[in-house]
UniProtKB/TrEMBL annotation:
Originating organism: Bradyrhizobium neotropicale
Swiss-Prot/TrEMBL catalytic activity: a quinone + NADH + H(+) = a quinol + NAD(+)
SUPFAM superfamilies on file: FAD/NAD(P)-binding domain
UniProt similarity note: Belongs to the NADH dehydrogenase family.
Sample GO molecular function, one term: NADH dehydrogenase (quinone) (non-electrogenic) activity
EC number of the protein: 1.6.5.9
A Pfam family matched in the record: NDH2_C
Residue ranges occupied by any FAD/NAD(P)-binding domain in the UniProt entry: 7-324
External alternative NADH-ubiquinone oxidoreductase-like C-terminal domain: residues covered: 347-399
The protein, known as: NADH:ubiquinone reductase (non-electrogenic)
Ranges that cross the membrane: 374-401
Keywords from the UniProt entry: FAD, Flavoprotein, Membrane, NAD, Oxidoreductase, Transit peptide, Transmembrane, Transmembrane helix
Length: 420
């Protein structure tokens, strides 16, 4: 007599979903891995696509290819629109359904505009590869338009970059744009001095990199200012339009605006009618299951759980991976009829790059800054990329930037010079 394998459906091939899939290797399960993108994206380096430092293919991998040796894994390129928990099936937006015995929702989050969704058109955020190439286009086009602009005020606005939010992404974007303007671009233009570009980093809170220790925040701010970034603290942005941003009652004319503040979870909580926090994150049980549904797990950026010594687990890649690992172990233990435990998050540290040779690392008791932190930051990121080819390619791109200040991916795509 043959028994039907346990059917696990995993929605989302990001950090959490992929880790769950990997950790279920060898288990007596049949896995369906669903993602609306055909690739896994290494979001921590997405800002390097936006700033022309890396090409898109250096930080993304086709999911189907990653799963080529896993005969028990079926990859579906599809968008999930809901879950029928009664009938135990995932609803796809084309009307089809995928049945499951165990469901893992790992659908992540997107940037949020604090109730001002209309700002998105003027200040795009960074989440997908398309966001990365769109921002790259905005940044490179700004310099091109400034080169042809004869009116000084309009040229100044073209050369002003406003970045809203001074978390790691805002800091990394601001630092890299400033370095591009000062070191990469000057020789390439004839009518403008790109070193005169203004990069303004606007933060509502009292310091940059709020998740880091105070002294590392202060170091990051001083380093940013040294490489030419204007840091504005304690000023929430109150308006954004096609000409610029308003904060502290004053207007900054900036033709390029980048949103790096606030996230909102995927609608997983809505699909299940489950309790959620203000950012829409599902409030899961201690073992990462949905209240009342032990057969449904939710992990990563789409959940809220106080499993870091009683504190909320941060929305970062290692947390999603640890949760993915926990869910895989729980599924395997259940199939063996063994007891399962609660999820506990272990924080390894926080890292942020500020500039070409500058980074900060907060390991708790050990804090690093400057060039040494930058090398560790670089090695850590290369280590976490998938596959030798990607590691070598990224390492080479970085060495080129380090040694020559040249950024290979300075391509304006998605339209000709006629498209704004
Ligand atoms: C710009 C940026 C920089 C970051 N930098 C860092 C950093 O330096 N260090 C760090 O640790 N973390 C960083 N993070 C956070 C980190 O990327 C996230 O915490 C991590 O990706 C969360 O993993 P996840 O699996 O929950 O979601 P994700 O990795 O976002 O994956 C979610 C997946 O679900 C898919 N999906 C969503 N909805 C659907 C649907 N309806 N149907 C089908 N598929 C769907 C998506 O396509 C995606 O592939 C950064 C994030 C961003 C955006």
């Amino acid at each position: 007599m043959t028994t039907t394998p346990h059917r696990v459906v995993i929605v989302g091939a990001g950090f959490g979903g992929l880790e769950t899939t990997y950790r279920l290797t060898g288990a007596p399960v049949e896995i369906t891995l669903i993602d609306r993108r055909n690739h896994h994206l290494f979001q921590p380096l997405l800002y390097q696509v936006a700033t022309a430092s890396l090409a898109t293919s250096e930080i993304a991998w086709p999911v189907r290819h990653l799963m080529r040796d896993r005969r028990e894994v079926t990859t579906l390129f599809a968008t999930v629109s809901g879950v029928d928990a009664e009938r135990r099936c995932v609803l796809i937006d084309d009307g089809s359904e995928v049945p499951y015995d165990t469901l893992v929702l790992a659908t992540g989050a997107r940037h949020a505009y604090f109730g001002h969704d209309e700002w998105e058109q003027w200040a795009p955020g960074l989440k997908t590869l398309e966001d990365g190439t769109t921002l790259r286009r905005h940044i490179l086009v700004a310099f091109e338009r400034a080169e042809r602009e004869t009116d000084p005020a309009r040229r100044a606005a073209r050369l002003t970059f406003a970045i809203i939010g001074a978390g790691p992404t805002g800091v990394e974007m601001a630092g890299t744009i400033a370095e591009m303007a000062h070191h990469t671009l000057p020789d390439d233009f004839r009518n403008i001095d790109t070193r005169k570009a203004r990069v303004v980093l606007i933060e509502a809170g009292p310091r940059v990199l709020a998740g880091f220790a105070d002294d590392l925040s202060a170091y990051a701010q001083a380093s940013l200012e040294k490489i030419g970034v204007e840091v504005v603290l304690g000023q929430p942005v109150t308006d954004i339009d096609r000409e610029g941003v308003v904060y502290g009652g004053q207007r900054l004319n900036a033709k390029t605006r980048i949103w790096a503040a606030g996230v909102r979870a995927s609608p997983a909580a809505e699909w299940l009618g489950a309790p959620a926090d203000r950012a829409g994150r599902v409030q899961v049980e201690a073992d990462l299951t949905i209240p009342g549904h032990p057969e449904i797990f939710a992990i990563g950026d789409t959940v809220s759980i106080n499993a870091w010594e009683g504190k909320p687990v941060p929305g970062i890649a290692p947390a999603a991976k640890q949760q993915g690992r926990h869910v895989a172990e729980t599924i395997k233990a259940r199939l063996r009829g063994q007891a399962t435990g609660q999820f506990r998050y272990k924080h390894a540290g926080s890292l942020a790059q500020i500039g070409k040779r500058l980074a900060v690392i907060d390991f708790g008791r050990i804090k690093l800054r400057g060039a040494i932190a930058w090398w560790i930051w670089g090695i850590a990121h290369i280590y976490f990329l998938i596959g030798l080819r990607h590691r070598l390619s990224v390492a080479l791109s970085w060495l080129w930037i380090y040694a020559r200040d040249q950024r290979a991916a300075r391509l304006i795509t998605q339209g000709s010079s006629k498209v704004v």
